[in-house]
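Hi everyone, sorry if this is the wrong subforum. Our group has a chain we'd like a structural model of before ordering constructs, and none of us has done structure prediction before. Sequence below.
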Amino acid sequence: MKGRAAALLMCLLLGLYIVLVGWQAVRFVLTGEPIGIAMGTVLIILPIVGVWALVRELMFGFRTEALVKRLESEDELPVDDLPKRPSGRPVRAAADEEFGQYRDAVESAPEDWRAWFRLGLAYDASGDRRRARAALRTAIRLEHEAARA
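Answer:
Right subforum, don't worry. Here is the predicted structure as tokens:
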């Protein structure tokens, strides 16, 4: 729930940003000066990039959440019984010990989206967010391909 509230807040802030920057961009373009037109054009492009990035992240979150619910309904979601630090993050040494089983599962079934999803969770528990997101994106892609087949 906390993630959804943060995403909503980001959407609202991005909307405010787009309105304010868009208005400033129009004002720059209306000056008729070449530098003003150039600045206005750049100010129009930046919010478009921001919207693209936000939509991409929201879609990633929705798709990941859908896969979590599906694994949960199939009773295949890994049990989160790792010891935790005071911050709530798993103790890395314990997460690293469990990591091998998830890596081996992907190596033995590279087309299984469930194995990739669990590997993504293991990467996240080990503190490697970049690889976690990559594994989760692979799981999303494989599940989508399997659903279309």
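For your construct planning: The mean pLDDT is 89. The CA atoms of residues 97 and 124 lie 13 Å apart.
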